[in-house]
């Protein structure tokens, strides 16, 4: 299903495969949830900037992680 979900979202399925996939989604809430989350992830990744954050941003994030409260083991 995961491979088909990618092909479904990329519109790379044949008419019959798409029909079978949609039928499965109507019956399976777990796959519906998976495809919904995958579609949201793809949308967010397409909206993300292509360039990496600048060095100052990386340093600030690293400092935040270093100073964050860590659970005690």
Automatic annotation (TrEMBL):
Residue segments, region Disordered: 50-73
Gene3D superfamilies, A to Z: Anti-sigma factor, zinc-finger domain
Basic and acidic residues bias (residue ranges): 52-73
InterPro entries named among the record's database cross-references: Anti_sigma_zinc_sf, Znf_put
Ranges for domain Putative zinc-finger: 3-32
Pfam hit, one: zf-HC2
Identification of the protein by name: Anti-sigma factor family protein
Organism from which the protein derives: Ferrovibrio xuzhouensis
């Amino acid at each position: 299903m995961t491979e088909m979900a990618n092909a479904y979202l990329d519109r790379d399925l044949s008419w019959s495969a798409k029909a079978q996939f949609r039928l499965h989604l109507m019956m399976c809430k777990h796959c519906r949830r998976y495809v919904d989350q995958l579609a949201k992830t793809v949308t967010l990744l397409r909206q993300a900037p292509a360039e990496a954050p600048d060095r100052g941003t990386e340093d600030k994030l690293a400092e935040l992680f270093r100073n964050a409260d860590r659970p005690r083991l």
